[in-house]
Every structure is written in C-alpha cells, then in structure tokens.
Amino acid sequence: KQDKLARVDAIIEELGLVECQNTLVGDESIGLKGISGGQKRRVSIGVELVKNPSVIFLDEPTTGLDSEIALDIAQSLRTLASAGRTVVLTIHQPNSDITETFDRFMLLAAGRVCYHGPFSDSMKAFSDAGFPCPTYKNPTDYYMRVVSNPEDASKVVEAYSKSPAFLELTNTSTEPTKNVDVPVTHVSRRPEAAPMWLQFSVISARFFRSMMRHPIAFVAELTQYWFMALFVALMYLQISDTYPDGLTDRAASQWFVLVVLGFVPCFTATTMWIAEQKVLNRETADNTYPVWLFYVAKVFSIVPFELFFGVTSAAIMYFT
C-alpha cells in the first residue's frame, strides 16, 4: 500500500498537480467548480500513469485549451518522456514552443508521411522539397498550409521518400531480426490487484462521496419523492370504508405507492448513468475491477439514501 501511495505522490509531483491535489476536480455541467481545464487534462493523464505504463498514447491532448495551458501539458509530457517513458501523441497546429518539446515529429497528409524525424530538420526537408519556410513564420502553420493542398502534399511526400532519412528508416524497419530464445512465463493481467473486499470498499466510498458532493441531486430526488407521496396522499385523502369501494381504492393507492417507490429511483439512476458509464467503461477496460462489483457497490452505497427517501415518503402518505 505504501508503495502505491508513493507512486501516486510521485505522479502528482511529476505532473505539477501538488498545489491542487486536495481540490475537487469539479463538474461544470452541474455548477460544481473545481480545478482548471489544463489541470483536468493532467489529472486524466495521471489516472493512466498509476498503472506505470512504459508507452503512453494520447489523442490531441491540447485540443480545446489555450496556448499557455497547452504548453503546460506539452511540458508535462516532455517530463514524462525524460523520465524514460515513450510518449506518442497526435496534435493539430502546435505553436513553436510546443514543437520544441518534441524529440521526433511526423507530419501526415491523407495518410501519407510527409516528414518523420527531428523537428529541427523539418525546415530543411520542406526546403529541399521546394517549400522553404518564410522568415518569422510559424513552421507548423506553414507545413499545414502546404500539405492541405493535395498537389503540394504529393511533392513533399515524394521528396521525403527519396531523402536519406526515409531510406535509413526503411532499411532499419525492414532489417530482419535475429532469433532469440526468450523464456516464456505467465504474467497475470493484474499483478498488483487489490483484494476484492478492498475494491468493494473503495468503490462504495467513492459512490457515497460523489452523492454527498452533489447536494442538488440529493434535494431534487427527495423533492420528487415527497411531491409524489403528497400527490398520492391527497388523491386518496378520503377513502371509503365500505366494501367493495374502499377495498378498490386502497388497492389503487398501494399501486401508486409502488409506482412512487419504484419510478423515482429509476429516473434518478438513469440521469446519473451517463456520467457513471464513462468511468465504468474506462476502469473495466483497464481491468481495474469486474463489472459486477461496480453494480454491487452502487446498490450498497445508495441503499441508505433510498431507505430514507422511502420511509419519509411512506410516512407522508400514511399520516396525511
């Protein structure tokens, strides 16, 4: 456990999240303020780093961020690469400060490689292809403008395919590998998996904290319960004591009670499922815990709340 906590602390420091490590991430869709957009992006990267991967793939990690925050993300990724990890990312129109953090740079146009190599050599490659970058022009902006034209892109691709860098890369990638006897050992997919009871307690506690951090959702569900309970109580306020009218009315009222106690929690669960599904898909894809444990922990965490809602609603209907 201490090793895992130490790993988390190291990742927090590595990604520059020390100052906000005790701050809620937040959710703007419900008005819950939290950390900034760049910090959220770094948190999402840190979640994957907990598993200590040697290779990291990122799809446009700077999209939707301003230039300063995008540079912070790029520098954080540069730090990860310097620590020995392989970082592969796609990015559109990076500024010159971001490109300085790249070790190698690949430019694609319609699935064809226009250039691959150190970014510092890219200007020479484009110049050799007949497209020298103008002075005081952002190279990446110029490259994007050139390759956006199919004819110019074809010229760049053809020039690169004849360059020594491409020939060297091709020879290296096609060179046959030597046969090496490697002992085969079985490796568990989850060598550091926590015990099932610990997974259950952590997931349940997370659900409980999530509900406590969303008082608006709590009040909204409670209001729905009480409103429906009061509606049913007033609708059957003066039930006849005679047979069979009284029996029929009481049976109908019990049916409405079941509707209230069954429909409202289903409606709430449906509205929350959209956000929870993303978490479930990500964590089960990483084999963090089994799917069934997620639902068991979910039910266990909401039982106290649903009991409170149900008992108070039943009291309203009974005593009204």
UniProtKB/TrEMBL annotation:
Transmembrane residue ranges: 216-239, 251-274, 295-319
Record carries keyword Cell membrane: no
Lineage of source species: Eukaryota, Viridiplantae, Chlorophyta, core chlorophytes, Chlorodendrophyceae
GO cellular component, one term: membrane
Species of the source: Tetraselmis chuii
Start and end residues of each ABC transporter domain: 6-63
Record bears the keyword Ribosomal protein: no
ABC-2 type transporter transmembrane domain segment(s): 199-320
Pfam families: ABC2_membrane, ABC2_membrane_7, ABC_tran
Residues in ABC transporter family G domain copies: 92-150
Topology of the protein relative to the lipid bilayer: Multi-pass membrane protein
GO molecular function annotations of the record: ABC-type transporter activity; ATP binding; ATP hydrolysis activity
Compartment(s) where it occurs, according to its Swiss-Prot or TrEMBL record: Membrane
Name under which the protein is recorded: ABC transporter domain-containing protein
Highest taxon listed in the record's lineage: Eukaryota
